[in-house]
Specification:
This protein is α/β, with parallel strands linked by helices and about 300 residues long. The protein is built from 13 helices and nine strands. One of its GO terms (biological process) is organic acid catabolic process.
Length: about 300
Amino acid sequence: MIKKIGFIGLGIMGKPMSFNLLKAGYELTVYDINTQTVEALVEAGAKAGTPTEMGETCDVIITMLPASHHVKQVVLGENGILETATEGTVIIDMSSISPVVSVEIANEAAKQGVEMMDAPVSGGEPKAVDGTLAIMVGGKESVFESVKDVLRSVGTDVTLVGKNGSGVTAKLANQIIVNLNIAAMSEALVLAAKAGIDVEKMYHAIRGGLAGSAVLDAKVPLILDRNFVAGGRIDINLKDITNVMETAHEIGVPLPLSSQLLEIFHALKVDGKAGDDHGGIVQYYEKMANVEVRRV
Protein backbone atom coordinates (compact mmCIF):
# COMPACT_ATOMS: atom_id res chain seq x y z
CA MET A 1 0.00 0.00 0.00
CA ILE A 2 1.36 3.42 -1.00
CA LYS A 3 2.07 5.64 1.99
CA LYS A 4 0.26 8.96 2.21
CA ILE A 5 2.83 11.61 3.05
CA GLY A 6 2.29 15.13 4.34
CA PHE A 7 5.06 17.73 3.95
CA ILE A 8 5.05 21.03 5.86
CA GLY A 9 7.67 23.63 4.97
CA LEU A 10 8.59 24.06 1.30
CA GLY A 11 11.65 26.30 1.57
CA ILE A 12 15.14 25.91 0.12
CA MET A 13 15.31 22.31 1.34
CA GLY A 14 11.67 21.27 1.64
CA LYS A 15 10.64 22.06 -1.91
CA PRO A 16 13.17 19.80 -3.69
CA MET A 17 12.67 17.10 -1.07
CA SER A 18 8.94 17.16 -1.82
CA PHE A 19 9.59 16.80 -5.53
CA ASN A 20 11.75 13.75 -4.80
CA LEU A 21 8.95 12.18 -2.75
CA LEU A 22 6.61 12.67 -5.72
CA LYS A 23 9.18 11.07 -8.03
CA ALA A 24 9.33 8.11 -5.64
CA GLY A 25 5.60 7.58 -6.15
CA TYR A 26 4.19 8.64 -2.78
CA GLU A 27 0.80 10.30 -2.47
CA LEU A 28 1.84 13.75 -1.24
CA THR A 29 -0.02 16.56 0.52
CA VAL A 30 1.89 19.82 1.02
CA TYR A 31 1.58 23.00 3.08
CA ASP A 32 3.53 26.25 3.20
CA ILE A 33 2.73 29.93 3.75
CA ASN A 34 4.23 30.56 0.29
CA THR A 35 1.26 29.76 -1.94
CA GLN A 36 3.34 29.92 -5.14
CA THR A 37 5.53 27.06 -3.94
CA VAL A 38 2.45 25.05 -2.97
CA GLU A 39 1.01 25.65 -6.46
CA ALA A 40 4.24 24.43 -8.07
CA LEU A 41 4.01 21.15 -6.12
CA VAL A 42 0.31 20.79 -6.93
CA GLU A 43 1.11 21.17 -10.63
CA ALA A 44 3.64 18.35 -10.20
CA GLY A 45 1.01 16.03 -8.70
CA ALA A 46 0.75 16.88 -4.99
CA LYS A 47 -2.36 18.00 -3.12
CA ALA A 48 -2.60 21.13 -0.99
CA GLY A 49 -3.70 20.64 2.61
CA THR A 50 -3.43 22.02 6.14
CA PRO A 51 -1.60 20.41 9.10
CA THR A 52 -4.92 19.33 10.62
CA GLU A 53 -6.02 17.76 7.33
CA MET A 54 -2.73 15.91 7.17
CA GLY A 55 -3.30 14.61 10.69
CA GLU A 56 -6.57 13.07 9.48
CA THR A 57 -5.36 11.61 6.19
CA CYS A 58 -1.59 11.01 6.18
CA ASP A 59 0.43 8.05 7.43
CA VAL A 60 3.64 10.07 7.71
CA ILE A 61 3.94 13.84 8.16
CA ILE A 62 7.28 15.55 7.55
CA THR A 63 8.12 18.99 8.91
CA MET A 64 11.02 21.03 7.51
CA LEU A 65 10.80 24.40 9.26
CA PRO A 66 13.19 27.19 10.29
CA ALA A 67 13.16 27.00 14.10
CA SER A 68 11.89 25.23 17.23
CA HIS A 69 8.87 27.48 17.75
CA HIS A 70 7.65 26.84 14.20
CA VAL A 71 7.73 23.08 14.75
CA LYS A 72 5.97 23.37 18.12
CA GLN A 73 3.22 25.50 16.58
CA VAL A 74 2.64 23.16 13.64
CA VAL A 75 2.59 20.01 15.78
CA LEU A 76 1.19 21.12 19.15
CA GLY A 77 -0.51 24.44 18.41
CA GLU A 78 -3.99 25.46 17.37
CA ASN A 79 -4.91 23.84 14.04
CA GLY A 80 -1.81 21.68 14.41
CA ILE A 81 -1.15 18.07 13.50
CA LEU A 82 -2.04 16.62 16.91
CA GLU A 83 -5.55 18.08 16.80
CA THR A 84 -6.50 15.29 14.39
CA ALA A 85 -3.62 12.77 14.23
CA THR A 86 -4.50 9.26 15.34
CA GLU A 87 -2.51 6.42 16.87
CA GLY A 88 0.09 5.06 14.47
CA THR A 89 0.70 8.32 12.63
CA VAL A 90 4.43 9.11 12.32
CA ILE A 91 5.76 12.66 12.43
CA ILE A 92 9.28 13.09 11.02
CA ASP A 93 10.74 16.46 11.95
CA MET A 94 13.60 17.14 9.54
CA SER A 95 14.22 20.66 10.84
CA SER A 96 17.32 21.62 12.82
CA ILE A 97 15.93 22.50 16.25
CA SER A 98 16.82 22.30 19.94
CA PRO A 99 17.12 18.72 21.28
CA VAL A 100 15.17 19.80 24.39
CA VAL A 101 12.24 21.03 22.29
CA SER A 102 12.41 17.98 20.02
CA VAL A 103 12.08 15.58 22.96
CA GLU A 104 9.28 17.71 24.43
CA ILE A 105 7.28 17.48 21.18
CA ALA A 106 7.92 13.73 20.91
CA ASN A 107 6.66 13.19 24.46
CA GLU A 108 3.46 15.15 23.77
CA ALA A 109 2.86 13.22 20.55
CA ALA A 110 3.35 9.92 22.38
CA LYS A 111 0.40 10.74 24.67
CA GLN A 112 -1.84 10.33 21.61
CA GLY A 113 -0.03 7.26 20.32
CA VAL A 114 1.65 9.34 17.61
CA GLU A 115 5.28 8.47 16.94
CA MET A 116 7.90 11.12 16.25
CA MET A 117 11.35 10.93 14.73
CA ASP A 118 13.86 13.79 14.65
CA ALA A 119 15.70 13.48 11.33
CA PRO A 120 17.67 16.60 10.44
CA VAL A 121 19.70 16.62 7.24
CA SER A 122 23.09 17.71 5.96
CA GLY A 123 24.17 18.47 2.42
CA GLY A 124 22.45 21.74 1.62
CA GLU A 125 20.29 22.56 -1.38
CA PRO A 126 22.35 20.66 -4.00
CA LYS A 127 21.93 17.35 -2.18
CA ALA A 128 18.27 18.12 -1.43
CA VAL A 129 17.76 18.52 -5.17
CA ASP A 130 19.49 15.30 -6.19
CA GLY A 131 18.14 13.29 -3.24
CA THR A 132 21.51 12.46 -1.67
CA LEU A 133 21.16 14.13 1.73
CA ALA A 134 22.80 12.71 4.85
CA ILE A 135 20.07 12.11 7.43
CA MET A 136 20.72 11.60 11.15
CA VAL A 137 17.72 10.11 12.95
CA GLY A 138 16.56 9.92 16.55
CA GLY A 139 13.68 7.70 17.68
CA LYS A 140 12.53 4.10 18.08
CA GLU A 141 14.20 1.52 15.86
CA SER A 142 10.86 -0.07 14.91
CA VAL A 143 9.48 3.28 13.76
CA PHE A 144 12.72 4.03 11.90
CA GLU A 145 12.41 0.76 9.99
CA SER A 146 8.81 1.57 9.07
CA VAL A 147 9.72 4.92 7.48
CA LYS A 148 13.19 4.14 6.13
CA ASP A 149 11.81 3.93 2.59
CA VAL A 150 10.51 7.50 2.88
CA LEU A 151 13.84 8.79 4.19
CA ARG A 152 15.75 6.98 1.45
CA SER A 153 13.68 8.84 -1.13
CA VAL A 154 15.35 12.09 -0.08
CA GLY A 155 18.73 10.89 1.24
CA THR A 156 21.36 8.22 0.74
CA ASP A 157 23.18 8.11 4.07
CA VAL A 158 20.35 7.48 6.55
CA THR A 159 21.52 6.59 10.07
CA LEU A 160 19.58 5.90 13.26
CA VAL A 161 21.77 7.58 15.88
CA GLY A 162 19.72 6.74 18.97
CA LYS A 163 16.60 7.70 20.90
CA ASN A 164 14.50 10.86 20.41
CA GLY A 165 16.71 13.94 20.41
CA SER A 166 19.78 12.07 19.15
CA GLY A 167 19.29 13.11 15.54
CA VAL A 168 19.12 16.83 16.28
CA THR A 169 22.07 16.53 18.67
CA ALA A 170 24.09 14.90 15.88
CA LYS A 171 23.06 17.76 13.59
CA LEU A 172 24.36 20.31 16.11
CA ALA A 173 27.72 18.51 16.06
CA ASN A 174 27.59 18.53 12.27
CA GLN A 175 26.95 22.28 12.22
CA ILE A 176 29.94 22.94 14.47
CA ILE A 177 32.23 21.03 12.10
CA VAL A 178 30.84 22.53 8.88
CA ASN A 179 30.74 26.15 9.99
CA LEU A 180 34.06 26.17 11.82
CA ASN A 181 35.55 24.53 8.72
CA ILE A 182 34.22 27.43 6.63
CA ALA A 183 35.58 29.95 9.16
CA ALA A 184 39.06 28.36 9.16
CA MET A 185 39.01 28.18 5.37
CA SER A 186 37.99 31.87 5.24
CA GLU A 187 40.94 32.91 7.41
CA ALA A 188 43.30 31.04 5.09
CA LEU A 189 41.77 32.49 1.92
CA VAL A 190 41.95 36.04 3.25
CA LEU A 191 45.57 35.54 4.33
CA ALA A 192 46.46 34.29 0.83
CA ALA A 193 44.55 37.10 -0.89
CA LYS A 194 46.21 39.76 1.25
CA ALA A 195 49.62 38.22 0.53
CA GLY A 196 48.89 38.65 -3.16
CA ILE A 197 49.00 35.04 -4.31
CA ASP A 198 46.57 33.45 -6.76
CA VAL A 199 43.93 32.01 -4.41
CA GLU A 200 42.49 29.68 -7.04
CA LYS A 201 45.93 28.11 -7.63
CA MET A 202 46.45 27.80 -3.88
CA TYR A 203 43.09 26.00 -3.62
CA HIS A 204 44.12 23.46 -6.26
CA ALA A 205 47.49 23.01 -4.55
CA ILE A 206 46.01 22.14 -1.14
CA ARG A 207 42.72 20.39 -1.93
CA GLY A 208 44.36 16.98 -2.41
CA GLY A 209 46.16 17.12 0.94
CA LEU A 210 45.00 16.94 4.53
CA ALA A 211 43.40 20.41 4.28
CA GLY A 212 41.09 19.14 1.55
CA SER A 213 37.43 18.61 2.45
CA ALA A 214 33.91 18.51 1.04
CA VAL A 215 33.43 21.98 2.52
CA LEU A 216 36.52 23.32 0.74
CA ASP A 217 35.37 21.94 -2.62
CA ALA A 218 31.81 23.15 -2.16
CA LYS A 219 32.56 26.68 -1.00
CA VAL A 220 35.84 27.94 -2.49
CA PRO A 221 34.65 28.04 -6.16
CA LEU A 222 31.54 29.98 -5.07
CA ILE A 223 33.60 32.44 -3.01
CA LEU A 224 35.98 33.00 -5.92
CA ASP A 225 32.93 33.79 -8.09
CA ARG A 226 31.54 36.05 -5.31
CA ASN A 227 28.43 33.88 -5.34
CA PHE A 228 26.74 34.01 -1.94
CA VAL A 229 23.28 32.87 -3.04
CA ALA A 230 22.08 30.84 -0.08
CA GLY A 231 22.19 27.07 0.01
CA GLY A 232 22.56 27.32 3.80
CA ARG A 233 21.62 30.80 4.99
CA ILE A 234 23.72 32.66 7.55
CA ASP A 235 20.66 33.40 9.73
CA ILE A 236 19.66 29.71 9.78
CA ASN A 237 23.20 28.70 10.74
CA LEU A 238 23.20 31.44 13.39
CA LYS A 239 20.10 29.77 14.82
CA ASP A 240 21.84 26.39 14.75
CA ILE A 241 24.96 27.64 16.53
CA THR A 242 22.75 29.40 19.08
CA ASN A 243 21.15 25.99 19.75
CA VAL A 244 24.64 24.49 19.95
CA MET A 245 25.72 26.94 22.66
CA GLU A 246 22.47 26.63 24.66
CA THR A 247 22.69 22.84 24.61
CA ALA A 248 26.40 22.86 25.46
CA HIS A 249 25.91 25.22 28.40
CA GLU A 250 23.02 23.13 29.69
CA ILE A 251 25.09 19.93 29.82
CA GLY A 252 28.38 21.57 30.84
CA VAL A 253 30.46 21.54 27.66
CA PRO A 254 32.65 24.62 27.00
CA LEU A 255 32.86 25.42 23.26
CA PRO A 256 35.24 28.38 22.83
CA LEU A 257 35.51 28.19 19.03
CA SER A 258 31.76 27.83 18.54
CA SER A 259 31.13 30.81 20.83
CA GLN A 260 33.42 32.96 18.65
CA LEU A 261 31.67 31.66 15.53
CA LEU A 262 28.33 32.73 16.98
CA GLU A 263 29.62 36.30 17.35
CA ILE A 264 30.87 36.22 13.75
CA PHE A 265 27.37 35.23 12.60
CA HIS A 266 25.84 38.06 14.64
CA ALA A 267 28.30 40.53 13.10
CA LEU A 268 27.39 39.35 9.59
CA LYS A 269 23.68 39.67 10.37
CA VAL A 270 24.16 43.26 11.58
CA ASP A 271 26.15 43.91 8.38
CA GLY A 272 23.13 42.92 6.27
CA LYS A 273 24.42 39.47 5.28
CA ALA A 274 21.78 37.34 7.04
CA GLY A 275 20.35 36.02 3.77
CA ASP A 276 23.75 35.08 2.29
CA ASP A 277 25.08 31.54 2.12
CA HIS A 278 27.26 30.59 5.09
CA GLY A 279 30.20 30.59 2.67
CA GLY A 280 29.75 34.34 3.16
CA ILE A 281 31.56 33.98 6.51
CA VAL A 282 34.58 34.97 4.42
CA GLN A 283 33.15 38.50 4.18
CA TYR A 284 33.68 39.00 7.93
CA TYR A 285 37.41 38.38 7.53
CA GLU A 286 37.61 40.35 4.28
CA LYS A 287 36.16 43.41 5.97
CA MET A 288 38.71 43.27 8.79
CA ALA A 289 41.66 42.73 6.42
CA ASN A 290 40.39 45.17 3.75
CA VAL A 291 40.81 42.62 0.98
CA GLU A 292 38.51 40.57 -1.26
CA VAL A 293 38.94 36.93 -2.23
CA ARG A 294 38.20 36.51 -5.92
CA ARG A 295 39.59 35.05 -9.12
CA VAL A 296 42.63 36.79 -10.60
